[in-house]
Amino acid sequence: MSSHTAQTELKFVGKLILEADLICETGLHIGAGKGSLEIGGADNPVVKDAFGRPYVPGSSLRGKLRSLLEQAAGLNPAEMVFLSKRRGQEVRIHQSDRPDDDICILFGRNPGRMERMSGEAGESASATPARLTVYDAPLDPDSITAQMRENLDDELTEVKSENAVDRVTSQANPRTLERVPAGARFRARMVLDILCEEDKELPARLAEGLRMMEDDSLGGGGSRGNGRIHFSGIRAAWRGKSYYSEGAAETELLAGADSAGLLGLCRDIAAQLV
């Protein structure tokens, strides 16, 4: 739990800038939700930008971080609310009105009527701004080498064939999945707003989530081997209020580190963010 209280006042202190290489150790599939199929194309294409290059949406990174941190904090049914109750597509997230709830402080909370997973629906009067912003992570085209391209099904992606087997008839149901290949590198950027002294506890929570993601998966089909990633080349910089108001220089806190180095920095972050 954080040290925030109901009396905590928000006043801009600065921003922690995090940049890192997100490297695929196995093929990565983040679906485009395409409604129609192209002749000869994969059943499940990956999301691409306007130039046809795969990227990692900021919403996918942020959502996975939140999910992992919620699991680490423990899922209390009384604090689980529905974002969607469509049959077969229920989506539940954690949200509470507790002022010391660091998950809600990090990712923000919305006021209004909430349909709760346990108990009756209720009104939430609390509204706090999200501290964490996660940007779309573009692909570094140079990470797809000429040798890799020789074995790809498309210029930048591969197609993985899978089978779902009927447990009664043993009939196979083949499907294809487009993936960004292992070895691909994306450039991730996150900005953590520090809006009060108590927020200096939040970088450690973010570092915890990034480390958990390295032993989990990103995107679809994680239990079938997709989406194993790791972070490298992590750079952390502090931009205090004077950076924006007076043109002061930023303070580089970390460069060329891995997630373990980031966690070590975050243990002492309260003393460094001044």
What characteristics describe this protein?
274 residues, alpha+beta, five-stranded antiparallel β-sheet, 13 strands
Describe the structure.
The model has no long low-confidence stretch (mean pLDDT 89). The protein has 274 residues and is an alpha+beta fold. Helices cover 21% and strands 28% of the residues. The longest helix is centred in the first third of the chain and has 16 residues, at 58-73. It has one domain. The strands form 5 sheets. The protein has a 5-stranded antiparallel β-sheet. A two-stranded antiparallel ribbon has the order 2-8.
Shape: globular
Structural class: alpha+beta
Structure summary, number of beta strands? 13
Estimated helix fraction = 10-25%
Distance between the termini: 22 Å
> Treating each run of at least 4 consecutive H or I residues as one helix, how many helices?
7
SSE string, helices as H and strands as E: EEHEEHEEEEHEEEHEHEHH
Strand neighbour order, sheet with most strands: 7-11-1-12-13
Give average pLDDT, whole number: 89
Q: Poorly predicted ranges (pLDDT <50, ≥5 residues)?
A: none
Give the biggest beta sheet: 5 strands, antiparallel
Give the percentage of residues in beta strands: 25-35%
Supply the number of structural domains. Answer: 1
Rg computed from alpha carbons, rounded to a whole number of angstroms: 21 Å
Question: Quick recap of the structure?
Answer:
This protein has 274 residues and is α+β, with helices and mostly antiparallel strands. It has one domain. 21% of the residues lie in helices and 28% in strands.
